[in-house]
């Protein structure tokens, strides 16, 4: 141990200082290495996140475009069904006007027959004339009223049928 005493104390302090400084230098180097690795991992994560956001935004864009296309297709189906229903309604109105015209002609004929019956009945006995005229008038009135009601009901039924067919057409077109 003699040789240890021959080394001055300040040398021992210098050796200790060099060892501590070297250890710190190793720790700082390792810290820098870990920081560089962490920066690389962070940058990779940022790149991966940016790529993911790009994929998601592209998928959202395609889904929105597809939804718009489907909505436009459904609207076109509904518009076409509405157009066809309008054509059928127009046709119905024309047929209704023609039927009303024919019904008015029949009502005129009933009125003419009723008036003829009244004129003919003037030559028959009063009791028979009153009974005959009453029957013709009542039957004529009933015929006119039932004809009017039948026309109204037929028109309402046809409008309901056209509307139902239009709805059915729209639903079939949408569910394709």
Describe the structure.
By secondary structure, the chain is mostly helical. The chain has one domain (40-174). 95% of the residues lie in helices and 0% in strands. The chain is built from 3 helices and no strands. It has helices at 2-6, 9-121, 126-174. Helix 2 (9-121) runs antiparallel to helix 3. The longest helix is centred in the middle third of the chain and has 113 residues, at 9-121. It is rod-shaped. The model has no long low-confidence stretch (mean pLDDT 82).
Quick rundown:
The chain is mostly helical.
Topology, element by element:
Elements lengths: L1 H5 L2 H113 L4 H49 L2
Helix pairs in contact: 2-3
Quickly count the helices. Answer: 3
Name the helix and strand elements from N-terminus to C-terminus, one letter apiece.
Answer: HHH
Rg, please? 51 Å
Helix content: over 70%
How many β strands by DSSP?
0
Distinctive features:
3 helices, mainly alpha, 176 residues, rod-shaped, single chain
């Amino acid at each position: 141990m003699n040789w240890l005493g021959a080394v001055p104390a300040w040398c021992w302090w210098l050796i200790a200082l060099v060892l501590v400084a070297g250890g710190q230098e190793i720790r700082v180097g390792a810290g820098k290495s870990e920081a560089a690795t962490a920066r690389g991992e962070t940058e990779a994560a940022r790149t991966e996140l940016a790529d993911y956001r790009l994929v998601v935004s592209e998928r959202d864009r395609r889904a929105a475009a597809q939804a718009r296309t489907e909505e436009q297709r459904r609207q076109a189906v509904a518009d076409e069904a509405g157009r066809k229903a309008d054509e059928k309604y127009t046709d119905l109105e024309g047929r209704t006007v023609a039927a009303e015209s024919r019904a008015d002609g029949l009502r005129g004929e009933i009125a003419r027959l009723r008036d003829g019956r009244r004129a003919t009945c003037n030559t028959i006995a009063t009791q028979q004339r009153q009974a005959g005229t009453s029957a013709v008038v009542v039957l004529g009135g009933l015929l006119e009223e039932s004809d009017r009601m039948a026309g109204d009901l037929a028109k309402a039924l046809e409008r309901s049928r056209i509307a139902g067919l239009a709805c059915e057409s729209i639903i079939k077109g949408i569910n394709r």
